[in-house]
Amino acid sequence: MSNQIIRDHTRRLLVAKYELERMQCKAISRHKNLPNQIRYEYFLKSSKLPRNSSRTRVRNRCIFTGRPRSVYKLFRFSRIVSRELASKGSLIGINKSCW
């Protein structure tokens, strides 16, 4: 397993762990009817959360190769791996077309 795959997996775990806390802080800090002091406290609290717990830091990577580009989100593998698997017949109902 490559280092990028492991790093991405740990980020996904952190996102799941801090998701509720991050959403609460974000909602309170954006609420316009609350006093500015409370909003600012929750803004600071959200900024003290780990950076890797942010959803935007998660990168879709191929689970076989670690390739970051052209990854099918539903299957989590790249187009290159999907072509290889289709050629071998490992994907049920999919075959590589040739003419």
Automatic annotation (TrEMBL):
Domain of life: Eukaryota
Biological process, per Gene Ontology: translation
Record-linked SUPFAM superfamilies: Glucocorticoid receptor-like (DNA-binding domain) (SSF57716)
Keyword annotations of the record: Mitochondrion, Ribonucleoprotein, Ribosomal protein
Predominant cellular place of this UniProt entry's protein: mitochondrion
Similarity field: Belongs to the universal ribosomal protein uS14 family.
A GO molecular function held by the record: structural constituent of ribosome
PROSITE patterns given in the database record: RIBOSOMAL_S14 (PS00527)
GO cellular component labels: mitochondrion; small ribosomal subunit
Designated name of the protein: Small ribosomal subunit protein uS14m
Compartment list: Mitochondrion
InterPro entries: Ribosomal_uS14 (IPR001209), Ribosomal_uS14_CS (IPR018271)
Keyword field contains Cytoplasm: no
